[in-house]
Known about the structure:
By secondary structure, the chain is of the alpha/beta class. The chain is 48% helix and 20% strand. Strands 1, 2, 3, 4, 5, 6, 7, 8 and 9 form a nine-stranded mixed β-sheet that branches.
Amino acid sequence: MKLRHFLAATAIALCAGPVAAQNFQLSHNAAAGNPKDVASERLAELVNEKSGGRLNIDVGGAAQFGDDAETITNMRLGTIAFSANSQGSTSAVVPEMALLGLPFLFQNLDQAEAVMDGPVGDKIEAAAEAQGLVVLAWWNNGIREVSNSKGPIATPADLAGMKIRTPPDPMTIDIFTALGASPTPMAFSELYIALQQGVVDGQENPLINIYSSKLHEVQPFISMTAHKYEATPLLASKMIMDTLSPEDQQIIRDAAAEAGTLNRQMVREQTATLKAEMEKAGVTFNEVDPAPFIEATQPVYEKWRGQYPELVDEIVAAAQAAGR
Length: 324
């Protein structure tokens, strides 16, 4: 009797065949060739390899699966699994994440990564998980600069009344309000046409985003303000992650870390070379004295310290320690 049961179970298993592959979507808003895009494709390759083909990720770049804000909503609903999202859009539901973009907090990528990879990053990850989002890894977007169609920006006075596109990010809006500009939140996917048609005068982004999305074609002036840092949080839907086995969750986390190393390396390499490439295309760059910009944005610290006094102080202290 036991033998018959064993043979029947074996026959059923053989008829069932191999376990069906699971398919997921990963959304991001970057153009092809951007470090965010290349790392996302590498993540998909690694997950497929490490799972023996059981886990497949379809990467939808350039907002094919929706813009960053829409993707955050869909991840919390469990309809999109992954996103190489933006710090700004994520902060709409995880406001603690906005603190990584406090004005002039970080002077370089090493300093920013040291803070994100430490206890501060752990606290923000916990806040994200409470909102249904799992931070798989902290990728880089870079240090942000200002481009515009009118002329070099040397002091905050040069921004007075200028319509500057910002992401839908309260921190960036606060920074440009403090600098005297007129911040205009807008999805990144709409930005090129808005600049081309003069709907806005300028925008702010890392050089890698300006170049890969060809914004320099319609923005002849770039001012090296280095006013804030921007992370690329690689996010997973907690609802979907919770359905996976611990082994498959670890495969995804390991792949996220490995692809993140590629992302960080590419951001550094491209940032070092793109200024010269855009100068060849006719872009005028200017350096700025950060002192008046830092002074003008001090009220931003006061505002956010009022909401998150302990975390702001912790982030500032961590940044100072990492900068030594």
